[in-house]
Design a protein that fits this description.
Helices cover 3% and strands 59% of the residues. It contains five helices and 43 strands.
């Protein structure tokens, strides 16, 4: 091999394989005047200039040429394992964004291959995010997550630079079905847990930035399991101008729901189709379309439930018999058109237009008749003494139709002195048509229980007759037709410089947003917020590969429709944007153990929040007070150690400490609903040394209990409880027949596959009982209320097949 030294240089290396996964010797690699060649094992290494875009060309006498474009920072080592074909010339340029560049920006890059392998009841990108520090979730059936004291509505999600939304009416994790993101189509996943740059939107907690794949050759994949399946196809035109990746998914959660305490007739159908189409009009002008159609049908007919709880000395049981059913439907339609025009080598402009339409209904009438008592014999579960009997009738006719349109212009200007300017302007129109009509009647031992309203006379039946009004225990009725118009924009300046022999990066920017809420019966005032943000990164000239980051600023979250609607369903058009002063101090250290790469990341953060919109969480449904009458704070520290604990595989361990409290109407500070004090998670990949093709994947999470489970009507300043700790381990075993490093010469039929594996997954390996909420039952004799935990899924077995052509 030969190489040329540069004042600032980086390394690209890897192993070159052919279409049969055999190493290829004698491949010539050229980049910016530097030349290298692969050896007999297919291994190559080449030195390239850093801090600018460089094209690498791979050529071989019997294989087609391919190219790669990289943009690396000084001393970065980038690993690229190309697959060279004898039948197709890969003329499409592949741009590889530098992981070290994301390291400078405090962004966590998640490996797409890892996402597909790791088991979980709701597998996908969110399943992996929940193992990262600062990210918390106590619901394996949900794709929602809370970040550093925020709630589910405080997270930005982008796909191909287009913001995506989640359904409005979903109240339970088992109703969600499918996350928007289709893992089969994903090329890159970036995540920031706080202190993110001004170019991202107006939320308080986190950014998930996803890029879908732009294929360079035909391919197809299939995944099938007892929970459903998915299929994707990569297509490329002969002239390479057109390319498309399309995926279809289907999911049925019956396997998981049937493991819960409640016996049901459960018929869910969760299905969607997505496509990402790209067209290269010219070398300077590209066009792309992202589309999604999703239909989630949820038919739920509970039959019986039996839950054991209490203590060893006094075991108790709740038996419930149901009548009625729930019928929900969530249909979403999404389309986004994006065009990119390279005005000059240093200036790029983008136009993005998108349309999101959701039609949702939540209809149910369920009568629950219960019996509460002590257990005579824990083995037989016979109830020897009945403490309470009663019934509960729940009714809902909730319908929502929302249409959200976006139009955005973005620009990127680059100068030769290692500085860039990013800017954008966006208009959003949100049209919401919402009817909420839900109520609940509770009967105990033959008389109706009134809501906890002070002016109602005391109900002392059976001892004295009750002559007051009979009212639903909970009653929410409202009809809202609202339109929200928003203008937002940002400007951000990026600069790389040197302080002595150390490198420093600056990211300085600001955002603004102006909005107005109007409707048939309401008219809100115009509101505007301004959000300056900054990031500073220092890489000292030390022998240790260490980076220090300081980031933060003033973050605002203008209210979305959910945040405008109060506990009675009435819209308050003048809800202000929640405001957060956010500071993050981080340290990132790369090192080697056993001659393998490892990384230790530490982040210390503090948020001071004002104009807080207080909320309560019931499963995954959030209800806001909608009055901005609180202030709050969140503080904590996150640690993450990741690396090759097992050669050739990436694993990590995460630990986080968080404390977040709020002060509502100056009553004093109490824990917020997302006050997740301690979090520990492990993601581990391994294989059997004697049989390397048998892989093991472990996903383990431990979270301390969240505040929650209290009756919905209770005042948290008078009564606040915590749920039990959340403990869960999911494990998967897979027999890999073909992957990127497997030789398949002995089995000719396997030559058609790029990947093929069959595996078994065990969800909730240790069968831990995790509660998401409590059902409160009254004992009419003692006047006590008992908290009956609503447990999540128990141990479940799943079989899974993965194939890719």
């Amino acid at each position: 091999m030969s190489s040329i030294s540069f004042a600032q240089k980086a390394h690209v290396k890897g192993i070159i394989l052919d279409s049969e996964n055999h190493p290829v010797a004698g491949v010539n690699i050229s980049a910016s005047g530097n030349v290298s060649q692969s050896d007999s094992n297919g291994f190559y290494e080449i030195i390239v200039p850093s801090e600018k875009k460089i094209s690498l060309i791979f050529t071989h006498v019997s294989l087609k040429m391919m190219s790669l474009t990289v943009h690396l920072i000084s001393n970065e080592v980038f690993v690229f394992n190309p697959l060279m074909s004898s039948s197709e010339e890969q003329m499409g340029e592949v741009f590889v964004s530098s992981k070290n560049k994301k390291r400078v920006q405090g962004i966590t890059n998640v490996d797409v291959a890892t996402i597909k392998k790791i088991p979980g009841a709701n597998a996908g990108i969110e399943n992996i995010l929940k193992t990262l520090p600062g990210v918390n979730s106590n619901n394996e059936l949900s794709s929602q997550y809370a970040v550093r004291g925020g709630n589910y509505d405080e997270n930005l999600v982008y796909v191909n630079e287009v913001e995506v939304y989640r359904p409005f009416l979903i109240r339970s994790g088992q109703q969600e079905g499918l996350s928007f993101t289709n893992t089969d189509l994903v090329q890159n996943v970036d995540f920031s847990a706080g202190g993110f740059q001004a170019k991202f939107g107006d939320k308080l907690s986190s950014v998930l930035d996803i890029t879908y794949r732009k294929p360079t050759q035909f391919g197809a994949s299939l995944e099938a399991s007892l929970l459903g399946g998915s299929m994707s196809v990569d297509a490329v035109s002969k002239n390479k101008k057109w390319s498309a990746v399309t995926g279809v998914r289907y999911r049925n959660n019956s396997l998981l729901v049937n493991s819960q305490d409640t016996q049901t007739n459960y018929t869910p159908t969760f299905a969607d189709i997505q496509t990402n189409i790209n067209y290269d009009i010219s070398a300077k002008w590209q066009l792309s379309f992202l589309g999604n159609i999703s239909q989630n049908k949820y038919l739920y007919q509970p039959l019986t439930r039996e839950t054991k709880f209490g203590t060893i000395d006094q075991p108790m049981a709740l038996a419930v018999y149901y009548e009625g059913k729930e019928r929900d439907r969530y249909n979403t339609y999404f389309g986004a058109l994006k065009t990119t025009y390279k005005v000059s080598p240093s200036l790029t402009l983008k136009f993005i237009g998108s349309l999101f339409h959701t039609v949702e209904q939540e209809h149910f009438d369920i009568l629950a008749q219960y019996r509460l008592g002590t257990i005579e014999n824990e083995e037989t579960s016979n109830v020897d003494f009945t403490r309470g009997i009663g019934s509960q009738l729940s009714h809902a006719r909730n319908d929502l139709d929302a249409l959200i349109a976006n139009a955005e212009i973005k620009g990127f200007k680059e100068w030769k002195n290692d500085s860039q300017l990013e800017f954008g302007l966006k208009y959003t129109r949100e049209s919401i048509r919402d009817r909420i009509n839900e109520w609940e009647m509770i009967d105990s031992a033959g008389f109706s229980i009134n809501p906890p309203i002070a002016f109602l006379p005391k109900n002392s039946q059976h001892y004295t007759p009750y002559t007051g009004p009979l009212l639903p225990y909970q009653d929410v009725r409202a009809t809202n037709f609202n339109t929200i118009n928003r203008f937002s924009g940002y400007a951000q300046y990026n600069k790389k410089a040197e302080i002595g022999s150390s490198q420093v990066w600056y990211h300085l920017g600001a955002r603004f947003q102006s909005w107005n809420v109007s409707g048939a019966a309401v008219e809100g005032k115009n509101q505007t917020v301004f959000s300056p943000r900054a990031q500073f990164t220092l890489k000292p000239d030390w022998d240790m590969d260490m980076v220090f980051r300081l980031s933060g600023g003033l973050y605002h979250q203008p209210p979305f429709y959910r945040e405008l609607r109060d506990l009675k369903g009435v819209v308050n058009p003048n809800v202000k944007a929640q405001e957060s002063v956010h500071i993050v101090l981080g340290n990132d250290y790369n090192f080697k153990i056993w001659n393998r790469p490892f990384k230790w990341v530490t982040e210390l953060y503090y948020k001071s929040l004002s104009d807080v919109n207080v909320y309560s969480i019931d499963n995954v449904r959030i209800r806001y007070v909608a009055n901005n009458n609180a202030k709050a704070y969140a503080q904590g520290v996150d640690f993450r150690l990741n690396g090759e604990f097992v050669p050739g595989t990436e694993s990590w361990i995460s630990f986080g400490y968080l404390k977040t409290e709020e002060n509502y109407e100056n009553k004093g500070y109490i824990a917020r609903p997302t006050d997740q004090r301690l979090k520990f998670a492990m993601l581990f990949q391994d294989y059997m040394p004697s049989i390397p093709s048998v892989k093991l994947y472990l996903n383990l999470v431990y979270n301390t209990g969240l505040p929650g489970g209290a009756p919905a009507y209770s005042d948290p300043y008078l009564y606040q409880s915590r749920l039990n700790d959340y403990r869960r381990a999911d494990v998967g075993f897979a027999k890999v027949f073909v992957d990127g490093s497997t030789k398949v010469a002995k089995a000719k039929w396997l030559k058609n596959f790029k990947e093929l594996s069959v595996g078994v997954e065990i969800f909730n390996l240790f069968n831990n009982q995790n509660a998401i909420t409590n059902t409160w039952v009254r004992d009419v004799y003692s006047k006590n209320q008992y908290a009956i935990p609503n447990y999540m899924t128990s141990r479940v077995f799943n079989v899974k097949l993965n194939a890719r052509l």
